[in-house]
Design brief:
The protein has 329 residues and is an alpha+beta fold. It contains 9 helices and 12 strands.
């Protein structure tokens, strides 16, 4: 792509990686005496849609500061428009953001990101095509974080945030992300990671310079190579997948996946019956806290009960404008 190249922002590390034993295995469990805060320390939310509104889903979310931190820099988003036509055409929107910055800057970065994302995605000015609208909304969120991070307020200087987004519409799942907030899909008893981390350790893993086991405890595991607010233009990853009844999506920060071995996360995600998104959320949070809770723990679980009708056709007005443009009228 042509044009000027934005200056690179400093890479940020949110937390030290888990330590390892002499054999290279992560030492995750806390001492037996560690006390887990009661459930009220967590903030929870839920959402459900009706059969005539596109994919029929049940979703739940929870966020917790963890056991070692006083503040929570994560932000969550569950959004289903009240307008039936908008819900059918644009679907439901879910997102998790993990802020980076001193004092309260990380919290502000993550909140700005999810707020602007929702405003832009459901804006009447947004493109009709879902993926195009999602790309535009992500770029708008990035620019908002960047402008505040490079504005006059010194407390917000250089703040950044990860962001992972899932849109369910027209029997499709649209996924976009930047950073190391992950999206998983549980389907037919198997769990797959849909996103790839944007971190230095993940880059080394792609180059096969380290193993997956080494990546889990690598000292550069939490050093991000992409994030919202790092530059005026961002390169998020996008993908699309067809929905199936029984699908369960998990969007989570490294405060969850960083505490759990792969098999433990898989088993916990599959443990709750279909449609019990709140139960799945609670189980994952409890497990992360039991294993140390060294970071903010935030995640969204979305259960697809019915994938719904196919995507609606473009509005007649949009088709007329397209045909007029092709004819040169």
């Amino acid at each position: 792509m042509g044009g000027a190249t934005a200056p690179a922002a400093p890479l940020h590390s949110r937390r030290p990686p888990n330590t390892a034993d002499p054999d290279g295995h992560p030492t995750l469990p806390p001492p037996e005496s560690a006390e887990i805060p009661p459930t009220p320390a967590a903030l929870a939310a839920s959402l459900a849609t009706s059969p005539d509104s596109g994919p029929r889903i049940v979703a739940a979310a929870t966020t917790h500061p963890g056991l070692l931190r006083d503040n929570n820099e994560d932000s969550l988003l569950l959004r289903a428009p009240d307008d039936a036509a908008l819900l059918l055409s644009r679907g439901t929107l879910f997102a998790v953001a993990d802020g980076v910055g001193g004092q309260n800057a990380g919290e502000i970065a993550s909140r700005v990101a999810v707020d602007v994302l929702a405003q832009e995605y459901y804006s009447p000015r947004a493109p009709h095509q879902i993926e195009t609208a999602l790309r535009q909304a992500l770029q708008a969120a990035n620019l908002s974080v960047y402008n505040q991070a490079h504005g006059p307020d010194a407390a917000l200087r250089m703040m950044q945030t990860t962001l992972a987004v899932v849109v369910l519409a027209g029997r499709q799942a649209y996924v976009g992300h930047a950073g190391d907030t992950r999206v998983y899909l549980a389907r037919s008893g198997a769990v797959s990671q849909l996103t790839s981390d944007h971190s230095e350790a993940a880059e080394l893993l792609k180059l096969r310079l380290i193993t997956p086991e080494q990546a889990n405890v690598h000292p550069r595991r939490s050093v991000l190579t992409r994030a919202l607010g790092a530059s005026p233009l961002m390169r998020p990853d996008f993908q699309r997948a067809p929905l199936q009844a029984g699908d369960r999506f998990l969007i989570c920060t490294d405060g969850l996946w960083g505490e759990l071995p792969v098999d433990a996360l898989r088993d916990a995600l599959l443990a709750a019956p279909p449609g019990e998104a709140e139960q799945a959320c609670a189980g994952l949070l409890t497990l992360a806290l039991e294993r140390g809770g060294s970071d903010n723990v935030s995640h969204v679980v979305v259960d697809v009960l019915d994938p719904g009708p196919a995507a609606p056709a473009a509005p007649a007005g949009a088709i007329r404008r397209l045909l007029t443009g092709l004819r040169g009228g």
